[in-house]
Each structure stands twice: as C-alpha cells, then as structure tokens.
Hints:
This protein has 615 residues and is of the alpha+beta class. The chain has 6 helices and 30 strands.
Amino acid sequence: MLRAPEEPDVHCHSVRRRLSWLVVLVVTFVAAPTLADPGTEKAAQALQKKAIEEDSLNVNYAAAVKKLESATKKCGADKCSPHVRATLFRDLGAMQVLNGAVDEGKGSFAQAISLDASIDLDPAYKTPQLDGIWGDVKKNGAAAGGAPAAPVTAGPQPTEGDFTTTPAAEAQVRTPLPVYVEYGGSEELTRVTVKYKGAGMGDWRSLDLPKVDQGYGALIPCKDVTQGLMLYFVQGFSDKSDPVATSGSKKQPFSVPVNAQLLGPAPSLPGQDPPAQCEDVAGGGAECPPDFPGCSKKKAADEECAKDDECDSGSCSDGKCAGKKQNGEECAKDNECTSDQCSSGKCSGGKKAEGEECESDEDCDSSRCKEDKCVAGASSGRKGPKVWLGVSASLDLTILPGANNVCARQTTYLNPQGYFCVVPGYSTQFLDVGKDITNYNNLVIGDHDQVVGGFERGDIRILATLDYAVGRNSLLGLRAGYVVGTAPIKTAFPPLHLEARYAYLFGKDAVNKVGVSPMIFIGAGAGEFDAYVPVSATLQCTNNNQGCTVGNKTSGTANAWLAAGPVFATAGGGIRYLATSHFAILAAIKFQAAFGGAAGFLPGFAPEVGFQYGF
C-alpha cells in the first residue's frame, strides 16, 4: 500500500530560517567595528598609489615614506579594512628599507604581517634584498634584525618631587607632547621650566612652562618627539634664578613612550584639544597631493585666515597669517618662532638662562657653563658691561722738520719755518728777556740757531676715557683731558685734548672675554700738539746805551718750539687685557697727525696706557 508523502515540518523550517537570520545579524554586529569607511580608505589608497607609482619610481623614497605614514594615520585602527592597512604597512616598510631605515622597515613589515599574513610584496618594487628581509620578518618577527617589534614602553617614574605631574601614557611621533604640572609648595616661583631629551638627542633642551589652568604647561616641539623614550624633569626658579623646586632629575627623569601609532587617547593640556601631528596630509603638509579631498594648502604670511592651523607660521592674528618671528621678538607660543622656542614671552634659540642646568658653554645665553649651571660672566657676549670708564696717559714723540735761523722773527714771534724761540725758564720770546742776554740786542743770522730734523719728545696727555660697547667686538668712545708740557707762549688753542674714537677688538666676544684681545682703533678731535729742541744763538751789541760795547758778541741757549693744531687724526693698535669681567688694562701705540697752527702739519707717534672699569 502506497503511503502519501509526509507534510514538511513547518515548525522546524521556521526555526532554521530564524537561526540563519540570527547568524547573519551576529556576524554583521561582530564585523561592524572592522568595516572600512569608504571615503577614508579611498583617500589612503590614493596616497598609497602616488607613493608607489610616482615617488618610488622616481627614487624619492623619503617622499614615499611621508605619504604612506600619512595614509596609515588616516586609517588609524578601524577606518580601513585590515587588508588595506596591511598593504599600507607593507609598502611603508619597503620604502623605509629602500630609504636606508632598515630597522624601521622591519617594524612596519611586522605590523603588516600581523594584520594579513597572506599578503606578499608588491612586484612594482620587489627586489632580492626586500624579499629577503620580508621573508626573515615573516619567519622570525621584526626582532630578527634588531628592530623592536613591540611598542616602546615607559620606565619607572619618579615618585617624589615638589610638583604634581602625571606623564602622558604615550605619545605619537612628530606630534607636540603636552607637559603639565601643578605646584603646591611654599616658595614663590617666577619661572618653571621642563628639561627634556628625546630619543637620539645628545643634549637636554629647555622649555619654559607658562601658567595653564591651575598649573604650568607647554608642548614639547614636534621635531623633538621621535620614536623611543622622551625623558624630562621639571624645575621651578625664584626671582634670583635659584632652582627652589624640582620633580625628577637627569638621573631619574620622567619618561613617555613615543610610538608610530597611538594605542589609546592622545594626550593634551587641560581644556585644550590634543595637538595635531606635524606634516599631516589633512593639514596641508608638503605630501598633500593636488586637489586631494580634505587637503588644504597652508597659507603664507599676510594671507587671510580664520584659525592658527591654516597658516604656515601656526599663528593667525587679526584675520591674517603672521610671519615667523626671530629670536628676541615677543611671542605667545613655540610655533610662532623660527626656532620653535618661545621662552618667557620671547623667541629664543633654545639657549638657557642663568641658573639653568647645562652641559657645555654652548648651552647658555652667557656662553658660560660652570658646575653644570649657566652663569653670568666675562665670557657673556650679551650680559657683560656696556659702559667703560677709565683714565689713560700718553707721551708724544713728535717728528720735527729741519730748519735754519729758527730764532729769527718774521712776524710777532714766528720765523719763516713756523718756529719760535723762548729762553729756558721764561714765558716770553727770545730777545725780549734783556737781563739774561746782557743787553745784547741783535741776533746774528746764520750762526748756530739751526734745528736738525727728527723725533723729539712732545706733550704728555692725561685723559679721562668713556667707551660704550656697541657689540661683542666694538667700542665707541670719547677722550677728554689736559695736555702737559705745551709751549710757554700762548698759542691759538688751550692745552686741552678732545677726541672721539672707535675701537675694534679681535676674538670671539672680545669685549667681555677675560684675557688678552688685540685691538685697532681710529680717532679724531681737537687739541694742541707741539715740541721743542734746544738751539744755540749768537747775539751782538748794537747800542752802547744798553750797557754793552758795540760790535761785541755773546752766545746763549734758546728752546725752538713748533706748534700745530687744533685739528688732529689718530690711528693705532695694541692689546686690551680684561683682568676680570669689569676691569680692563690697555696698551697701544698710535700714529697721530695735527693740522693747522704755525707748523701747518705735525706728525708723530705716541705710546699709550690706561685702565677702565665696566658696569
């Protein structure tokens, strides 16, 4: 007997259908976090294409690395599919190896393989070298070549100190790193600084922490935030630049791990957004392709802007981009300065102030590091004395010209050569002093009163000096004083010396450098310049009424003077010995020439010595 076919079990079929939909929903729910964002993935792949098809083919591996790093950042941890992220890290590793950074390349290869172990190198750039490194990493992990496969982690943090601070859990490479501290001590602080040293940095650098919220904070510049450990410690200074509060030290610093990618939230200062990574594609960096979605070109100085990050300088003021500021100019933040260092409201070159810790003279504003601290001193080109007061003395060695009949008068008291004769010990002219020549009243021309040209001792000059330091090597000054030993007969200019002088000192920061510095100088001014030479003169009696026999002769001595001025010029050289930061001794030899007066032109030399006190 045939049996009719059984009716399907409608209930079981319905259950199976419901289970199928439930599985689909569960799979969809689980997979949802890893679904790619189409726009982001497309943008990242466009950068990847330009890096491989343009930069790599043009052997511009550095540019390719930048584009691929930006692409991986765009994808983050979940905005691109694992396969796309794997290809990005694979290509990034290849470009890093080709650019010479083998260890970094191995790290990127390891990330790529962890995301998708099925991928292989792109034939567009595959070489035996890359294939070998790729195979080693795939087999042994990134650590096979010495590159760390695991992210950098922080070391033990200091537990005691005068400041309350919590170091950032992690930081991203090329991203300004926030440092924030709070102080609850009793000392009054006038300045707070952080001393930091990033991976690969040879010296500690200093950054002022201005007031932020309830404490002090600033951003370590992105150029110093490199992969590895960022070390830092904090100091607070009194109004006398003494360190009165600290947290951490060079031997026990705080540490922040810096990695290529962040695993958690980005750090920030209180009440502020996390800082953006430098050279970001979305920010319009150099790696931004033309007309790429989301790219915006940075604006130059004086172009219109709405916010800081639109400008090359990082500063938008009064609706226009501001230009980068030079050292010494006022600033509010680091990115306003060409040096990326804004300290105490002014751009600086990263030099350290007095009282801050240092390792060498080059670390300090004063160019002087003593016992691991910057100190003021004579070697400071910016903080040394500006005004130098002193005294000097010089002795003229005048070159007198040869002449005959120097005691013969042509005018009131001068002979044709400009000489005039005076009886020693008197202030009146020769032949006017009757008692010393026994009434002999007529000079015998051509008999003995002759000057043989040559050097003769001239005047002595006692001067007050004033110099002003107009730079690290230049002094601009004045000389004024009295001239001793001038001619006994009054000349056209009083026995005074007035001079303006410029001096240049050779050597680094020579004005304030303790020790000997060679110098040269020039000057000009007004003063009396004269000298004399003793001569013999023969006199004859011509009048019996004066108590002498007519025709008789007698010989006497006269001083033949020659005077010039008041205008003079001088030039010379010597040494300046800075015994201490405030006391200097000078020694020089100078050439000088006087113009005008009876002589018309009177040259000579003069040794000069002096000392000065600076303040």
